[in-house]
Amino acid sequence: MKKIGRQVCFLETTESNKRNGEGSFIRLKDNSIMFGYTEYIGDSGDDFANARISAVTSHDEGETWGEKRVLFTKPEGAQNIMSLSFLRMGNGDIGAFYILKEANIPQEKLCSGPVKEGKVCNVTKILCVRSSDEGETWGEPIDCLSMLDRNDYFVLNNDRVIKLKSGRILFALARHTIYQNIFRFSPGALCFIYSDDDGYTWEKAEEELVFPFDRDPAGYQEPGLYEMPDGRVRCYIRSSLGCQLECFSEDGGETWSCVNPNHFFTSPRSPMLIKAVGDYTVAIFNPYPEYHMRSEAEPWGRTPYVCAVSDDKGLTFSKDRIFYIEDDLSNSYCYPAIVEGDSYFLVAYYHTNNTGNCLNCTKIIKIKYNEIEQ
User: Fold this and answer.
1) Which sign, positive or negative, has the C-alpha torsion 317, 321, 322, 324?
2) Largest alpha-carbon pair distance within the chain?
3) What is the rounded distance in angstroms from the CA atom of residue 39 to the CA atom of residue 17?
4) Which of 103, 142, 251, 361 could form a disulfide with 128 if both were Cys (CB 3.0 to 4.6 A apart)?
């Protein structure tokens, strides 16, 4: 399998910055590219550790990147903010969407799995913040989930908010109910949040998809969306079943088909991302699930990393159009973000960096379109 792309940026970690990742790109009006990401500050890179949203900018089509600056910090009393999605809004503003983990609740009161001493879980908000001056200043946050039950835990991955051709802004959430009486999360259900007024007010689609199997405590995980050329919206979903799951909507996210496995996208419990770039549609994912006898696999089986290319706007993918992004099985790679350029696209993702910790540094690579041509 051919390997594509070359490194243009590597956001390394330090003793006081244990994790950099879950980012998103935005093309600015001066044609520069800003990459925002979650920067964990302090002595922990845990999902619930202290974190903020920082950014670096390139003025030469991703070849070089400037100094880091902080975009958003968590409110006083919150646990952290993380998992950024940028979106160009209808009025020209930049929209920034991210998770706010608001409440500190001891893990042993919520979760069924192993408990680390002092670890906390959090109920969440999804915030939308707007900038009318290309990210120099930001307005007040809008709570996109004000209509929902605050006792639930919601997951929105990075680089996952999309705008449909109709102008509707849409994103998918994994909802985990916090069962206070039995102290655990429920398997993830899918719910869909949309705005028809350019992000100022938000609604929840009436239909919610509930995971049908009790034996998998994770359920539907970390969903993403892609608008197909025929107008359908595809929802693709991380799972514990050895592949990505998927379902489709023909009415802009209001109702959905049954969820089915897509065995082309074999996968461990790791998220996929599908985006249009240039004349192509690409899917970034880990192609192999974890399985017995695979001793070389590093944490969580998230290796190698590949780019599948569709020449018909995402209607079909084929095995002869898959390329390696990373083929070193001693490291792991996950949580991609993508932005297109005139002759290339950039992909950012977590890189283990030989630490044994899957969620560690962020690597940005540049892929020329001629590398994926037939």
Assistant:
1) negative
2) 57
3) 7
4) 142
Query: Residues 55-107: pLDDT tens digits?
Result: 999 999 999 999 999 999 999 888 899 999 999 999 999 999 999 987 655 55
Which residues in 89-110 are b (16+ Cβ under 10 Å) and which e?
beeebbbbbbbbbbbebebeeb
**What is the rounded distance in angstroms from the CA atom of residue 152 to the CA atom of residue 186?**
9
Question: DSSP for 263-328?
Answer: EEEE-SS---EEEEETTEEEEEE------TT-TT--GGG--SEEEEEESSTTS---GGGEEEEE--
Q: Which amino acid is at 61?
A: E
Distance CA 170, CA 152 (A): 20
pTM recorded for the entire structure: 0.93
Res. 38: pLDDT tops 90: yes
**Which pLDDT belongs to residue 295?**
52
Q: Are 310 and 281 in contact (CB under 8 A)?
A: yes
Domains in the chain, CATH or no CATH each: 6-371 (2.120.10.10)
DSSP state of 67: -
